[in-house]
Amino acid sequence: MSTKIGFIGLGIMGRPMAQNLMRAGHKLWVHGRRPTTMESLVMEGAQGCGSAAEVAAHADVIFVMVSDTPDVEQVIFGAGGVIERARAGQVVVDMSTISPVETRRFAHDLAAKGVEMLDAPVSGGEVGAVNATLSIMVGGKEESFQRVKPLFDCLGKNIVHVGAHGAGQVAKACNQIVVGVTIEAVSEALSFARRNNVDPAKVREALMGGFAGSKILEVHGKRMLDHDFKPGFKVKLHQKDLRIVMETAHTLGMFLPGAALVAQQLNALIGLGDAELDSAAIVKNVEKLCGLDTPRS
Ligand code: NAP
C-alpha cells in the first residue's frame, strides 16, 4: 500500500533513501535546505516543499535525515518546522545520528501533539543507502515500529527494534565506538607494515580471511592504501558521533579510553583542515606520527 511520506534532509544519505522509498511506489513530499538538493527527486515525481512544515501538512510518516542534534531540533520544532503543521496520528522517524538524551525529549514533546517518534539511525554508509542494505537501529513504541517496518524494509536489511525511545541512538553510539576504534587499529596495522618495509596491501590481503578481518579492514583499509579519502562518512560527522559517545560517558562516569583516543584523532583532523574527508583519513595522523610520508589528498 502506498504511504504519504515526507523526507527532510537530502544529503549523501537522505537523497538515495528518499529515492528508494519513491521507487517502492510511495508518494513523497521532500524538503532540502538547499533547493538544488531536491531537483533530482522532483524530476522522479516527488513534490518539493519550501519548508519542513509544508512536508508535515501532507505526509503521514515524516523521515528526517539531517546532521546533528540542533539540526533535528530545528527542522522539527524551529520556525517553519514539522511541529507547525503536525497532527495527531503522524509518525516522525529520525534517522540522523544524534544524542539519545535529546531524542527522548523530542519524543516527549511530539507526544504532547499526539505525534509518535521513532529514532532510527543507520549504519552501512552511502553504499548501504543507495543499495537499500542499511542496518537500522530503532527506538520507540512497538506499535509505531510495526507501522513503519514496511518502509524500513525499502531502506535496509538488518532492522532491529532495540527498545524504547533513545535505544536506537544508544545502539548507533555503540556502532560508532566499534567503527572508530577499528579504523584506528587498521591505521596502526597498515602503518606498522609500511615501517617494516612490508607491503601493506599484501598484509591487508593476508589479514582479511582471519580473525582480524572486518568490513573496516576491507573498505577503509582500501581507502587508506589508495589515500582516497573522498567521503563516504565525513570526519566532521564522525567527530560529532564520538562527541555524543564521550558526552554520554561523561554524564554516566564511564571509562572509554579507546573511544577517547579516536575522538582526539578526529579533533586533530578537523584542526588540520580535513573535516570534509572520509574518516579513514585517521591513517594520515598515524602515518605522520610513525615517521611515514603521507601524500596530501
Ligand atoms: P550530509 O551529506 O552532510 O547531509 C546532511 C543534510 O542535512 C544536508 O542536505 C543538509 O542540508 C541537511 N541539514 C543539516 N542541517 C540542517 C538544518 N538545520 N536544516 C535543514 N537541513 C539541514 O550528511 P549525511 O552523510 O547524509 O549524514 C546525515 C546523517 O546520517 C548524519 O547524522 C550522519 O551522522 C548519519 N550517517 C551518515 C552516514 C554516512 O556514511 N554518510 C552513515 C550513517 C549515518 P545542506 O545541503 O543545506 O547542508
Taking the alpha carbons of the first and last residues, their distance comes to 47 Å
Q: How would you name the oligomeric state of the polypeptide chains in this document?
A: single chain
The number of distinct β-strands equals 9
State the CATH superfamily name of the largest domain: NAD(P)-binding Rossmann-like Domain
What small molecules accompany the polymer chains? NADP nicotinamide-adenine-dinucleotide phosphate
Structural class: alpha/beta
State the domain count.
2
Walk across the major sheet and give the strand order: 3-2-1-4-5-6
Unreliable residue stretches: none
Order of helices and strands: EHEHEHEHEHEEHEHEHHHHHH
Strand content: 5-15%
In DSSP terms, counting alpha (H) and pi (I) runs of 4 or more, how many helices?
13
How would you describe the overall organization of this protein?
The chain is α/β, with parallel strands linked by helices and 297 residues long. The protein folds into two domains: 4-163, NAD(P)-binding Rossmann-like Domain (Rossmann fold, 3-Layer(aba) Sandwich); 171-289, N-(1-d-carboxylethyl)-l-norvaline Dehydrogenase, domain 2, CATH 1.10.1040. It has helices at residues 14-23, 39-43, 52-58, 69-77, 100-111, 125-131, 142-152, 167-195, 200-208, 215-226, 235-252, 257-271, 282-289, and strands at residues 4-8, 27-31, 47-48, 61-64, 91-94, 116-119, 122-123, 134-139, 156-163. The strands form two sheets. Strands 3-2-1-4-5-6 form a six-stranded parallel beta sheet, with helices on both faces. A three-stranded mixed beta sheet has the order 7-8-9. β5 (91-94), α5 and β6 form a beta-alpha-beta unit. α8 (167-195) packs across α10 (215-226). It is elongated, with a radius of gyration of 20 Å. The protein starts with a strand and ends in an 8-residue tail after the last helix. The mean pLDDT is 97. The structure holds NADP nicotinamide-adenine-dinucleotide phosphate (NAP). NADP nicotinamide-adenine-dinucleotide phosphate is lined by residues 9-14, 32-34, 37, 65-67, 71, 74-75, 96-97, 122-123, 125-126, 233, 237, 241. NADP nicotinamide-adenine-dinucleotide phosphate binds at residues 9-14, 32-34, 37, 65-67, 71, 74-75, 96-97, 122-123, 125-126, 233, 237, 241.
